[in-house]
Amino acid sequence: MKKTKISERLRKDADSIWKEIFNHPFVVELYKGTLPIEKFKFYVLQDYNYLATNMKNLGILSSKAESVEAMREMLEIAHLEATSEFESYEKFLKNLGYTIEDAIRIKPTQTNISYASFLLATSSLKTFWEGLAATLPCFWTYEEIAEFHKDKLNESKNSLYFEWASVYLTEPYHDLVNKMKGLLDNASNIEYEKLKEAFITASKYEYMYWSMAYDMEEWLIPLKQE
Amino acid sequence: MKKTKISERLRKDADSIWKEIFNHPFVVELYKGTLPIEKFKFYVLQDYNYLATNMKNLGILSSKAESVEAMREMLEIAHLEATSEFESYEKFLKNLGYTIEDAIRIKPTQTNISYASFLLATSSLKTFWEGLAATLPCFWTYEEIAEFHKDKLNESKNSLYFEWASVYLTEPYHDLVNKMKGLLDNASNIEYEKLKEAFITASKYEYMYWSMAYDMEEWLIPLKQE
Amino acid sequence: MKKTKISERLRKDADSIWKEIFNHPFVVELYKGTLPIEKFKFYVLQDYNYLATNMKNLGILSSKAESVEAMREMLEIAHLEATSEFESYEKFLKNLGYTIEDAIRIKPTQTNISYASFLLATSSLKTFWEGLAATLPCFWTYEEIAEFHKDKLNESKNSLYFEWASVYLTEPYHDLVNKMKGLLDNASNIEYEKLKEAFITASKYEYMYWSMAYDMEEWLIPLKQE
Amino acid sequence: MKKTKISERLRKDADSIWKEIFNHPFVVELYKGTLPIEKFKFYVLQDYNYLATNMKNLGILSSKAESVEAMREMLEIAHLEATSEFESYEKFLKNLGYTIEDAIRIKPTQTNISYASFLLATSSLKTFWEGLAATLPCFWTYEEIAEFHKDKLNESKNSLYFEWASVYLTEPYHDLVNKMKGLLDNASNIEYEKLKEAFITASKYEYMYWSMAYDMEEWLIPLKQE
What we know:
- 4 copies of one chain form a homotetramer.
- With 226 residues, chain A is mainly alpha-helical.
- Chain A has one domain (6-214): Heme oxygenase-like (Heme Oxygenase, Chain A).
- In chain A, 77% of the residues lie in helices and 0% in strands.
- The longest helix of chain A is centred in the first third of the chain and has 28 residues, at 37-64.
- The model of chain A is unreliable at 222-226 (pLDDT under 50).
- The interface between C and D is medium-sized, with 33 and 33 residues.
């Protein structure tokens, strides 16, 4: 009998959350092409900040991998992310009329800070495997979202959103996600509960992140003196 | 002309948030003695988890202090927290009918995870001073809350809440807070904007934390498969 | 059949190195009272630097302890070290005619840097248990050295060295060492080889450290341009 | 007047040590082709361990770089090192009749542990710039050694050593070193003394490392029971 891979177990255990993510109004409207542009701009600016943190996160994970082989793979993943996804993001910012400095200057929302802190604290202070399990949902949900809404995307007339989304349907992006899944499959099943905790928590943050963007989250209290 | 201390500047810049904290329904009802007991129990169990994380946080800060003198003071603070506030918490848990194991077993809410991750990521990856600025609001707001609601507390007939709250009016607790403020006052004003960011963000988490307890926060999505 | 404690196994496995340490000329002459004072001064100044690093090391370990109980004990140990051994060292420096600033200004030797780096890298990047196993030999050998040479010490006419050494025969110092041993005994035997590696390597550094002091180590190359 | 680059200042301040390195018997005999093969094998096996640690070190540095740009460059460097120098090393091991497992199994010498610990402790606990300054001498001295002994190498009949050494004369290797120097030149001159300390200390370790290999370092004490 074939043993279930850890990544498959995690995927299954997070399924109800992932379904909510797929059907999140931000996601649906984005792939349909009907999402108000100001919500999208809000998202993109916040996401630049998030991606910078995630690059740091991948650096930390690279330094914690237990074997030379795993370290090399993590560096490969981090390098790929830094040079491909990240650079395409910078081009994209320019298309929206922003400079990178604009993006750097944007204050992260409380939800953004929470998710980023969770990733950094997990990769810094927990095991390599827990850090990897926390990092995976971001990459993986984007791949599945794109797959789930592929038909909508092809019918969409919104070339801006089309361009943004189509990255997640490319071969290099699939490779990136597969590399991470493959690496995580080497974790020990004994640690499964901890991996699940990290994976589920990160999946919840993914959902909250889309809500943050859809609601263009501001801080609840009018801060006159700040 | 006397220069304003860094802790005073921070306190002033966070004033609008702190006022909201003082008037948060959880806080007000707690000091009045009218808070429903199940909300309080929810809070106390979550807080045990938070305090354990905060102890780790104080350990990290102890290791990052730049001078021998500052390191010794941080160890003093961490040790005080570990032996006094924390131990009294454990006694308190028992009064509520819980074992420490109950408290350890409780899953932290997403807000709890967010706040704790923010503290750990800041103290691990930013400067000692930013870590300290992030850590201070938790200790300091509790002191000011108790001072702000002292009259309500004295009129309260709720001996359980009275006992819990009166810790924050004691001399040793004032000393603890003053030690932390005094240490932070040694930071450089050049770094003020970063310190402020940490202090304000932590203050916001304090507010969210009370809301989490008042709402007995559950995760927004019905997770059937989890 | 009683199981051998981890600390006892480690002690036995390091026995040949520890015997060399007990018989190191610096140690023997120190307890006899015949050690040239300039060698002792060299040692004390280097050691202030080492102790400051070790305090940082204990802070790191405090933040890595896995249970609340272990964290509290590590903070207790770190706090004890910071307030008792360290403060007595500062008094001692003054007796020798040095200010603390003199001690801070002293450049650590390459051996000192090596040992301190080993402790910090181990506690930062390996498990809590490996960090603790690396930290123990410093504390423990000083206790056994004092015990081993107790008779010599009592016959010694050198009140300066007598004062320095007698700290390691006191009850509080025994308690400190016992606390650390007791904590390490909670480690898992499965990890024994890694613990042994850390413990043996640290024991070797202890030997090298005494040699460094006896030889008043300077850097091997005449550095004209530096 | 042109300002001296930080990397040039460091290079000049370390010149006397670097001259000793260039003339170290291991280095000279290696480039002449007369180095006894057992010394070379000893070196190569130790170095595999060192390179693995250095990859971890580069991962840590990647996570600490302060700007997105610097992070990306560090990941580029780390990735280059992991895929080019490191992979060529693995091929080289095989040429010498070793498997990678042989190399992994080799216990690092005390000098190797010291140097590796110094790099890891510096990059983990000091600033990004100090970590980078500590990391540079290893890469840079190898480049200058190869340049310094180029003529000897060309006359050498030893094809094994020729192959090993010629990597350090290639364009990609020059690029790697130049990238690191260029990155370090962005550091602030205010921090120069700390950078110098890290750079000089690492240069000394480089010298000690060659001595370790030439002497085929064993531990000074006969360890019967170990």
